[in-house]
Amino acid sequence: MKLFNAITKRTVYSIGRMVRETGLAMDQYGSKLSKDIAYLEPLSRHRNLMPLYDLVPQYSYNTYISPNCTIVGEVQVGSESQVWYGAVIRGDLNAVRIGNNTSIGDNVSITTAGSLPTGIPASVNIGNFVQVQNGASLYSCTIDDEVVIGFKSVVLEGAKIERGAVIGPNSVVPPGRLIPAGQLWAGNPVQYVRDLQKSEIASNIDTCKRNLTLAVEHMYEFLPQNSAYLQKQNSIDDVNPSKQTDTNKVPHEFKI
């Protein structure tokens, strides 16, 4: 039954796309005949949230999704997390799950494999209070809570970063590597540097909270009539109405 429903959804999606593109082509042809050149003006058709057949991105009501990021397919982004400018998260071959209060920085790339030869799940799982800093790349890996992935670092398939660990900037975590909790690793390939102090791990959590405050300021820059759809489109509360959150508890920063 599940297979039949999936086939039906993909068939309806394909027909809808065909009709939409046919209508667009006819509109352009009619404009050309009437010498209306407005259709020639280049307009951005970028969509920061893009379903892939029956795989629909989901996020919480107080998640910040930047206007020019790209989130495709089976992706879940938790409460008070942020996906910053230019980030690409592809849940096309496998699922991507991002926890609460997590920051996905500018130009970050998160992708998945269909499967791994080791039998390890090929999805990407990112915990709570995680910082994935600008330009980093994650590929079918597991990131536990309170981890920091440094600028332009790469975490390859099957790797696992345990709680509170830090990967230094411009580092590469090889496939299948386990990074123990509370340690700093850096280099290409990564090597152990030292153990982290509790105060350093707590500081990383504070940075995540500051990122949330910054996200609120960025959200205020969008006119309410233009960004209201960001609070409703494909949100987890809409997809799972039985789990809807009391709107009276919504932080005022995120109300529109």
What features would you describe in this structure?
This protein is of the alpha/beta class. The chain has 2 domains: 2-40, no CATH class; 49-238, UDP N-Acetylglucosamine Acyltransferase, domain 1, CATH 2.160.10.10. 25% of the residues lie in helices and 25% in strands. The chain is built from 4 helices and 20 strands. The protein has helices at residues 2-33, 198-220, 224-227, 236-239, and strands at residues 49-50, 58-59, 64-65, 70-77, 82-83, 88-98, 103-104, 109-111, 124-126, 131-132, 137-139, 142-143, 148-149, 154-155, 160-161, 166-167, 172-173, 178-179, 183-186, 191-195. Strands 1, 2, 4, 6, 8, 9, 11, 12, 14, 15, 17 and 18 form a 12-stranded parallel β-sheet that branches. Strand 19 and strand 20 (191-195) form a beta hairpin. The radius of gyration is 21 Å and the shape is globular. Mean pLDDT is 83; it is low at 243-256. Residues 237-256 are annotated as: Disordered. Residues 237-248 have a biased composition (Polar residues). This is Trimeric LpxA-like protein.
Summarize the topology:
Elements lengths: L1 H32 L15 E2 L7 E2 L4 E2 L4 E8 L4 E2 L4 E11 L4 E2 L4 E3 L12 E3 L4 E2 L4 E3 L2 E2 L4 E2 L4 E2 L4 E2 L4 E2 L4 E2 L4 E2 L3 E4 L4 E5 L2 H23 L3 H4 L8 H4 L17
